[in-house]
Amino acid sequence: MRQGIHTISFIGLGLIGTSLMQALKHAGEATGRNIEMVGFDPGFNEKDIAAITDNFGLDRFETDPAQLYAADLIVLCAPVLANIALLETVKQHAPADALITDVSSTKAEIATRAEKLELNFIGMHPIAGREQQGYCAASPELLCERMVILCSGDRLPESGHAAELVELLRTASCNVAAMSPADHDRIYANISHLPQLVSTALMQHCRDNVEHSGPGFASATRLAGSPWPVWCDIVRTNRDNIADNLAAFSSLLANLAEEVRNDNIEALDARFREANELYQRLQERGCS
């Protein structure tokens, strides 16, 4: 494929942004492409700038917006609402043919705003992470064999910078899939946002007995350690889907409580069997 992406700018150089930068840099090198990696993070000091350029693959830390956004591919890696606000700056400075993407955990609201601004935008969601945060915990291996969602509709893009992005992600050993922004937010409200809030609620519900808990409880409540500043924007930009899932899960819990109270062993057995089978499928996919 003829190289159309010569420069990629990352606005936000945390765990996901830096890991993605490294993965794309290695993918470019593996296919003989010379791609310059430019980045900016408002929280960086001189020590951070030196570290990320010397040890993590960033070619240039850029503070001038005119230079920062003068790229073929612009990746917004700030929290969701900050990314939405950044679209105005992107519109002002980015080349007309630049591809804009983001790594936010919700997609519909930012896609709507980008469309109104007539930006060449396709949302992206790398399904990866770890408990440590910040660029120091970054690694291209974080994305290896992980799913990366591109919100390009029913199919992956087949031309332009977007098609080249797909090829770079695949070269980085990512499993790239397509879906619409609305489908993304509906699905991830169920399998990501609901588990986070359930874990948070479970920790609160059991607060008086946490000191007596073991490793099983710690595993079930691992997500309760997630920081609210990260999740605030996710909840605010996907609240209807999340609320619907919480309501449906509350109904399931009510039914489960009745089965336990009424000693309905057959129903409980069926639940455990189904859950065991689904868990085994996750293990086979390497999602443990």
UniProtKB/TrEMBL annotation:
KW RNA-binding (keyword) present: no
TM region(s), chain numbering: none
UniProt xrefs under Pfam families: PDH_C (PF20463), PDH_N (PF02153)
Source species, domain of life: Bacteria
Residues of the Prephenate/arogenate dehydrogenase domain: 6-288
GO biological process: tyrosine biosynthetic process
Residues of the signal peptide: none
Record's keyword terms, sorted: Oxidoreductase
MF annotations from Gene Ontology: NAD+ binding; prephenate dehydrogenase (NAD+) activity; prephenate dehydrogenase (NADP+) activity
PANTHER family listed in its UniProt record: PREPHENATE DEHYDROGENASE, PREPHENATE DEHYDROGENASE [NADP(+)]
Name of this protein: Prephenate dehydrogenase
